[in-house]
Design goal:
Elements (H helix, E strand, L loop, with lengths): L1 H20 L6 E5 L1 H4 L2 H12 L8 E6 L7 H13 L4 E6 L5 H7 L4 E4 L1 H9 L1 H17 L2 E4 L5 H9 L6
Parallel strand pairs: 1-2, 2-3, 3-4, 4-5
Helix pairs in contact: 1-3, 6-7, 6-8
Length: 169
Amino acid sequence: IHEFDIAMCRKVLDFLVEKAALGRRYMVAVNLSADSLANAGFMAGLSSLLSRYEAVRDQLIFEVTESAKIEDLAAVNAFIQSLRGKGHMVCLDDFGSGAAAFQYLQALEVDVVKIDGGYVKSACATAEGKLFLKAMAGLLQELGIAAIAEMVEDDDHLSVIRDCGIGFA
């Protein structure tokens, strides 16, 4: 998986260079596996790769999937902070889908949290679900973390997430 994650990052960076030559600028997110984040060789390889793409590297966002098991949260957070220090945004993806959601949120300093779509569906279906989503959005706002709601499929969903204080879908 480490080699795959590096190859995907290289492919995205090449795409960004190609589009920049045409005058287009995109922000692209790449998921990183928990195994890669825990691997020192991967971290060194990614740092080396990023150093070769200075012109576009700020357009690359990294996503850490919350549903993946991370053993050494302190080491992963140190790596995340090195990425953020180099201008990359880091996102906690699928927030709430795994058993360690709030543990990850407390241990990993990130820029963005993508709230799992199940919470959006629940908020649209029940008053309790909406209260829960609103509480999650309030916590993220208090922490200074941007929230994105997943699985927003229509105007009704959009209205609910706006009512909950979530600005992105």
